[in-house]
Amino acid sequence: MYRATNRLFILLLLLITAACSDPASAPENVNESLVGAGVETALQEPVAGAMASQEISGPVIVYSSRQEHLIKPLFDRFTEETGIEVQYQTGEDGPLIARLQAEGKQTFADVLYTVDAGNLWSAAEKGLLAPIRSVVLEKNIPSHLRDPQNRWFGLSVRARTIAYSTERVDPASLSTYEALADEQWRGRLCLRTSRKVYNMSLVATMIERLGKEATQEIVEGWVDNLATRVFSSDALLIEAIAAGQCDVGLVNTYYLGQLQSENPDIPVALFWANQQSSGVHVNISGAGVTQYAKNPLAAQRLLEWLSTEEPQTMFSALNLEYPANPAIEPVDLVASWGEFRQDSLNVEIAGRLQAEAVMLMDRADYR
Amino acid sequence: MNLMLSGGSWLWRGLALFAAAVVIFPLLIIIAQWATVGTGEQAIWQHLFETKLDRLAVNTLMLVIGVGTGVVCLGVSLAWLTTLCDFPGRRFFEWALMLPLAIPGYVMAFVFLGIMNFSGPVQTFLRNRFGPELWFPDVQGALGVIIILSLVLYPYVYMLARSAFLNQGRNLIDAGRLLGLSRQQAFFKIVIPVARPAIIAGLALALMETLADFGAVSVFNYDTFTTAIYNAWYGLFNLTVAAQLASLLLLFVGVTLILEKQSRRHARYTQDGANRNKSEFQLTGRFALAACVYCSAILFMAFLLPLAQLTAWMLEAGFAEQDDRFLGFLGHTLGLGTIAGMLAVVVAMLLAFVKRLPGSAFTQRISELSIRLATLGYALPGSVLAVGIMLGFTFLDRNLGTLLYGSVFALVIAYCCRFLAVAYAPIDAGLEQVKPTVIDAARSLGATPGRLLRQIYIPLLRPGLITAFTIVFVDVMKEMPATLIMRPFGWDTLAVRIYSMTAEGQWERAALPAVTLIAIGLVPVYLLIRNARGGRHRG
């Protein structure tokens, strides 16, 4: 029914304004909220060519650095629900953003989906993402998990906190990320490489809060405390704690989740860092509508849908992450790690200070 | 030179120059990034100089020397054993030893580290047995990376050295022995020097891939020039500096290759080849056993061990989640490998052929230079080259209104840019061994360039052409960065599948596509060897 009216509407519009349908002349890219309502108003007052590009027809095309097995189930559900087809191209963040930039107005992409706020920030800085106004997204996604200018929105939350050996560490001795630079952890700390964006973001937020000098001191303290070379993955790091190579480390929670689902008895547990101060550091996977989207309304519809209950639960189930929508409960295994307070700094800091964080870690010889 | 001949040769030259220009274009785009050095770029360069450029240079150099030594030792010794000696199992080893080519470097690295690191089974067993204070070598360091890359990359040297040794036959050695050389002397003074162009060509490929490697080194967290390139791009969000660093890498490789070429400018390495003696050194007793054990050990570490681990993961993950799309991945992989392999071989053949056409010193220089440049792309980190190619195509699309980007055509061109060096090396090494007198004779009898190509070069080069196709085919199947960014919508391949699973640490689920990839790689490798063997026994 819905699609039938759409088609009829398009046909009418095409007949009336076949000549002046230049999508580039659309009045800025701030689309009106709530797609359904938008369509109805459009039906009542057809304001000629410009509206044609805002009509939902044809597929939404997504460039995604989030991997296929984590997005396809969501997109399939979206298509079932709305009848809007989703096509996607997966790849790495850097090349995808370079591609979006190179394609310019010709781009196929309606949505850019990445696994880190820094990348979204970088794409927004390059003018690749359009601001959207959406009541749904503003309601569902807390303000620290989205761009202050509404060009991108967090959809799932990845928390990075302290993992410790349940055999050799008393959790009472743990407190903050900063305290891992203390003498008592000399030779007992494991870290993943500073080349991984998770650590860049964490250090970026520390720079914002504590300033460069204090942060540098802390990072140097971490490096002094290292039990062994830095690891290339969180999973290897957790296994090293389990095997006794070190006692504490910093990890994204879902990596422990993956190992726990294989081996529930793994002698490693999570400690929620900085609960008395800044809160646990979080990053997001998130998305934005591209500046030159051909199908911006459908794109917005997709983002809005992803912030609602079912897909939010699926995020948690598919990769053991936290829903970005605070009203939605994570799956049991994730919930079993307990509640925690998130760092309320806007995640865009991760992007804005990322380069500074990288250089700081270089100077501290954190590899 | 008669008029007709020179007219024909200009046509060939033009074609070759065009092909080279297409391949060089992305490189120029990357080099052109030097045009923009803003304050941001300056700050990053200053930071690099102050903090780690020296360490990166040392690390990279160590890697190059280590892997270079590793692949030459492994590749040459194995090639020598399987071509010029005979021992039980030789006929199996001669093709099996090429199989590690089909294993992606980062998969190998991950498997190795998983088995050998502190929490892995080997060290855990030793700790339980001998107590927690047991010393174990630092597998995460330079040594580990060097071992991994040597094991993965030695097949380049092995393949090229093999065909050189096969062409040599026993005659030269016999001559040397008659003149009073010992067996060792004959090997080092005759066999190796005569095979040098081929060995160097294989070594160059292995080292270019080492320099471009990001996967294996990042599994080990070993900082190289290439990790710095990615760090500038992904970490500092500065693609310009990344491209600038990458072009320095190109410069380094270019200069090294030219120096090597200079050092053997006046040498000739042609073969008689007519009277191939098929009898080998018959190894017996403990020598035969040693040869057998040595080959088995390498095959075990470089192929069977990673394959076993992958198979174990594959069984663990089960086949439940595989749907009908899997056949699609397989089809795309095979199709792209075949098309790109054939195109790369044709272009490489064209370049190698044109290089040997007679002409003035100037035209020779031009051909040499364009070939040099056209085969440099292999040394670039994949994603960086891919962006260069992508910018090239989007530039064309924007200015000429074409719709190339995102087409299969563009992707195949991208593979050619990346792997032309791989196709060129065996063909060029093969041509080095064709006697110029044969060509001169044909030419003096009035053969046109086209006839020369058809009736002399291609038949003489058959093994080289098949080798070239095989390596490109396997490399294209494994290729990840360019495929990711250039593939048409829905054209996922096995490599893309492997990437998307491993990127999230889901190694078990990556195993099935990885094993499939290896299985497909088996076919051309086996055919290649059978072909080479047939050639020898026919001779």
The percent range for helix content of chain B is over 70%
Strand order of the largest sheet of chain B: 1-2
CATH superfamily of the largest domain in chain A: Periplasmic binding protein-like II
- Terminus-to-terminus distance of chain B: 34 Å
Overall pLDDT confidence of chain A: 87
Strand content of chain A: 5-15%
Shape of chain A from CA axes?
Answer: globular
The biggest beta sheet of chain A reads: 10 strands, mixed
Which structural category do the helix and sheet elements of chain A fall into?
alpha/beta
Whole-number count of domains of chain B: 1
Q: In terms of per-residue confidence, which ranges of chain B show pLDDT below 50 for 5 or more consecutive residues?
A: 1-6
Sequence of secondary-structure elements of chain A: HHEHEHEHEHEEHHHEHEEHHEHHH
The beta-strand count of chain A equals 10
Helix-strand string of chain B: HHHEHHHHHHHHHEHHHHHHHHHH
CATH architecture of chain B: Orthogonal Bundle
Features:
heterodimer, A: 367 residues, alpha/beta, D-Maltodextrin-Binding Protein, domain 2, ten-stranded mixed beta sheet, 15 helices, 14% strand, disordered N terminus, B: 539 residues, mainly alpha, MetI-like fold, two-stranded parallel sheet, 22 helices, 1% strand, globular
